[in-house]
Amino acid sequence: MPRTDQPDRPSSARAFSRRLLLGGLAGSAVSCFLPLRAARSASPVAAQPSSLIVGGTAESICGQWATLLAPVLADSLHYPSSFPLRMTTGWDGVTGGNLFDTQQEQATPPAGLIVPGSGLIAALRGDSRVHYDAQRWIPVFMSCQPTVAVGKVSLHRSFTSFLQGRPLRVAVSTLSGPELPTLVALDLLGMHPLPVAGYATPDAAIAALKAGNVDVIQLPFDEDYEERMASLQDEAPDNQPLFSNILPASTAPHLRLPPDFTTIFRQERKRLPAGRLYDVWKTAASAASLKAGLMLPNLSQPDLVARFRHAAQVAAAEPALRAHAREQNQTLIAGLPCATLYADMMPDLDRILALRRWLSVNSLRWRDPSAGRALPAAAQQNPN
Predict the structure, then answer these.
(1) What is the pLDDT of residue 165?
(2) Which of 195, 214, 273, 371 is the most buried (most CB within 10 A)?
(3) In this structure, are 176 and 271 located in the same domain?
(4) β-pair partners for 25
């Protein structure tokens, strides 16, 4: 018997419903076989990306990289617009790192942080300004550049015979600054360095070296390095590159760097450096070489980390970004290889404690014994 609880529908309506059902099933079946990239493209892209915090101003190296990276990353991640950039003041990335950490509890936390290596060195040293745990960050993009120690020190002569009791003065920005690897390297060579703080720029350090206010400076191996060295040697030809702060295995063939510190140590001491202090130098040299690193929060979802790593690899292959890195004598690392390099920059607790013990012991010697206070800094101050 025909059912009487539902109204009879015309045959055309029943055919339309049948086609609609079959069409929906077919569409679902086809979507199951779409390639992953096509499925991502078909996924909703209405959400706007959250901000990238930048450990520096727009004119800083991190600011320049943020401006280049943000649109490429957003495009690779299929966002409808670029990542908003939130610049911060300060010269070493500590302000940006603190902001990145405190805003993780917000409803819309920042997507990432672009920070220089000086922010890592401040954390390694235990700087009182640091309120973040850099060991918990996940790096996905890095731009690295070595540094070079320059001076008129004869490394094969003893500290006493060369300086006649005068300390080996090394120009630094601060004790938490990127000059830390040069200080450690000179100590490994038995040169007993004495940091003189306040020289925040290469030009200020060069002027101090020319004036005889310091004996050793550290210069970035950037696009201005050769011009700076030529100008320095024209006026003070005794000043020469001493060594580069770069691990032997990471030396880039296309860079005409001075010999790395490990090679110089072997030449001067007839053996390879070893021990905990050499591990400290490797950590300091790796961290100081970081000009800009894109970090994700530690609690990021694995699929999000994988997507960011892929987007960072796409960005590192972009001609504009590669040209910018080449002009700055910087090397790009993207994706999973960043984790291996970051392990040298943020090592295990034993190496961090060794660095802090070394700083604690030497800070006593870095004080004026007659006055019982820290040696006065130079006139130049760190720019904000």
Answers:
(1) 55
(2) 195
(3) yes
(4) none
Total structural domains within the chain: 2
Query: Are residues 152 and 84 part of one domain?
Result: no
The domain that holds 221 is classified in CATH as 3.40.190
Radius of gyration, CA atoms only, the chain? 27
User: Same domain for 175 and 140?
Assistant: no
Domain end call among 271, 287, 303: 287
Residue 211 and residue 80 share a domain: no
Specify if 380 maps to a domain: no
* pTM confidence score: 0.81
**What's the confidence (pLDDT) of residue 157?**
52
Residue numbers of the domain that contains 321: 55-145+294-359
Q: Does one domain contain both 236 and 186?
A: yes
Q: Is 360 exposed, middle or buried (0-12, 13-18, 19+ CB in 10 A)?
A: exposed
Which residues, other chains included, contact 186 with Cβ-Cβ below 8 Å and sequence gap of 6+? 149, 168, 170, 192, 193, 216
Q: Tell me the C-alpha to C-alpha distance, in Å, between residue 62 and each of 29, 113, 141, 161, 226.
A: 46, 10, 12, 43, 23
Predicted confidence at residue 18, as pLDDT, reads 40
HSE (side-chain half, CA atoms, 13 Å) at 102 = 8
Same domain? For 166 and 229 the reply is: yes
Residue 64 has φ and ψ, to the nearest 5°, of -65, -45
Query: Looking at residue 251, what is its pLDDT?
Result: 58
The verdict on 204 and 311 lying in the same domain is: no
Q: Where are the alpha helices (DSSP H) in the chain?
A: 11-32, 36-42, 61-76, 94-102, 117-125, 159-163, 180-188, 202-211, 225-235, 261-269, 276-289, 302-316, 319-327, 337-345, 349-365
Structure tokens, 253: 């063939």
Residue 258 and residue 171 in one domain: yes
Taking the chain (384 residues) in consecutive chunks of 10 residues, what is each chunk's mean pLDDT?
A: 44 40 38 35 57 96 97 96 94 94 89 96 94 95 96 63 67 89 94 92 95 95 95 90 88 78 92 93 96 95 96 97 95 96 93 94 73 42 38
State the Cα–Cα distance between residues 24 and 42, nearest whole angstrom. 17
